[in-house]
Design brief:
Elements: H1 5-23, H2 28-31, H3 42-66, H4 82-91, H5 117-138, E1 147-150, E2 153-159, H6 160-184
Antiparallel strand pairs: 1-2
Helix pairs in contact: 1-5, 1-6, 3-5, 3-6, 4-6
Length: 186
Amino acid sequence: MEVNFEQILQQSNTLKNYIKSDVAELSDSKLNWKVNEKKWSALEVVGHLNRVYEKYLDNFKMAIDSAPDLPADEVLDYQSTILGRMSIYAMKPKGKKRRFKMKTFDFFNPITEPNKKHETLDLFLKNKEAFNGLLKQARTKNLKNIKMPTALGEKMKFYVPECFRFILAHEERHIVQIGTILEEAK
């Protein structure tokens, strides 16, 4: 399967721009609004995404750094695991709906404080830039046989290109969640 890094990067930038232009402009009260105490606010969703990046950015860097350079005239082909394809499918929203309800792992629960709006959003944008930088770096690497651990550790690994797609599907899922929260907050 051929990897289209340009398409992945464009998708990543679309998600970044949504947070930067639409979410960052919201009032503190709207960003911190919750339907109830068991649900996350929009700001907490962004905090959750930051926790995910904390876990994955170093793994991406190590995997990409360990990969040999891709010859200039070659296009990266990579394998995909059935588990990777299923995980991406399960994460990716269908239109404005999340396909499946999922409980997050405790270590991904958001650490945000209502009065830390700028810190949370700035960290997300910083993480997004790091992610996009790794995507650009990955374009020049032969990642065909390079796997990296998921949040479940060394027991469950994805090929690097499918892990990029998994992270973006996860972000799309939470962008839909933010949209639902903001609709309910009206």
